[in-house]
Amino acid sequence: MLVRDLRRNIVEQNRRNRAVARDGAWAGHAAASREMILAGRARLGAPSPRVLVLGAGACLDVPLRELCEGGGRVRLVDMDGPALSQAVERLPPGLRRRVDVRRLDLTGGLERLGATVAPSVETASATGLAALPNQLASFHFERPAFAELPSAGWDMVVSSAVLSQLIAFPSDAILARWVAQAREHAPRLLDPTMEDRIADQLARLETESVTAHVTLLAELVTPAGVVYLSTELLGPPAAARTFAEARAALERRLVADVPDGPDILPAARTASAAVAAPFSILDRRTWLWDFLRPGVAVGVAPQVFAMIGWLLAPRAPTGQSDALPHPATGEVAV
């Protein structure tokens, strides 16, 4: 039941995202993402490139038609089957044959995670519920392996705004189930210390999943290929009272290229460090994503994010680097 909920959370969030995107709020983000992806595609020497899009969903921020028109083949990967179908159905009939889809869990570990924590979240036992931090501590994400995704088999690999979603929704499902069970059967466990222990373990799992995803990107792309990677860099400032204030505050932060600070989101900080070893940075850009404009969803606060995107090339065997400064620290990886 828990694994089903983990998967359902992801599919449901994708459905909400598609609904939000229809009002045009994502236009700026989609344009920035598409521009970088096409810039990466233009760097490829392959006449009929093989493009892999991880966490593709409905390709709301991926220029799927243009990638197909180049004469290559495109594989879309996501857990959300209906979203993948929508992406393909929006293509002209003549281009659909250039696309194939695979339904995969990109972490390679949600089934294992669900099985690991189930005894601590699907129980009425106070002892079982109290064991959740230790159950989480025993679990680790590793670089997933997929028979459907051959190593060094792709001229371009795209991962657009995927990192923060790898385990965010599963984490929410685990925590929600645990809180509900604890509230009913062991209310004494609902204290800040226990919640902090659980939160620390979930944060560790996020770091592991992001690092494993970057490793996966490096192993999937050909030596002469290009990777596009993007993620949320900064969230809405806590002090902002309105959507306009939040947007203006993020714009000021981005004036100095890529800012540093404790408010850099964990996925961005982890990815920034993880890309340094396997990749050289060809390009790096930041932009704002009006994720949820005022008035779009009743009872839900508007949201705006600062995004960061990288175009990456596998490092040459010499180890020489043309890397740009680390987004969080300003240091240049060597």
Characterization of the model:
- The C terminus is likely disordered.
- The protein has a seven-stranded mixed sheet with strand order 3-2-1-4-5-7-6, with helices on both faces.
- The chain is 44% helix and 19% strand.
- By secondary structure, the chain is of the alpha/beta class.
- The chain has one domain: Rossmann fold, CATH 3.40.50.
- 40% of the residues are buried.
Keywords:
334 residues; Rossmann fold; seven-stranded mixed beta sheet; 12 helices; 7 strands; 44% helix; globular
Give a short synopsis of this structure:
The chain has 334 residues and is α/β, with parallel strands linked by helices.
Mean pLDDT: 87
Order of helices and strands: HHEHEHHEHHHEHHEHHEE
CATH superfamily: Vaccinia Virus protein VP39
Return residue spans where pLDDT drops below 50 for at least 5 consecutive residues: 319-334
What is the CA-CA span between the terminal residues?
47 Å
CATH topology: Rossmann fold
Radius of gyration from the alpha-carbon trace, in angstroms: 20 Å
Q: Assign an overall shape.
A: globular
- The total of beta strands comes to 7
- Number of DSSP helical runs: 12
Q: What is the CATH architecture descriptor?
A: 3-Layer(aba) Sandwich
List the helices and strands and how they pair.
Elements: H1 2-21, H2 27-42, E1 50-54, H3 64-69, E2 73-78, H4 81-89, H5 93-96, E3 99-103, H6 110-121, H7 126-130, H8 132-137, E4 154-160, H9 168-185, H10 192-220, E5 221-234, H11 243-255, H12 266-274, E6 279-292, E7 303-314
Parallel strand pairs: 1-2, 1-4, 2-3, 4-5
Antiparallel strand pairs: 5-7, 6-7
Helix pairs in contact: 1-6, 1-9, 6-9, 10-12
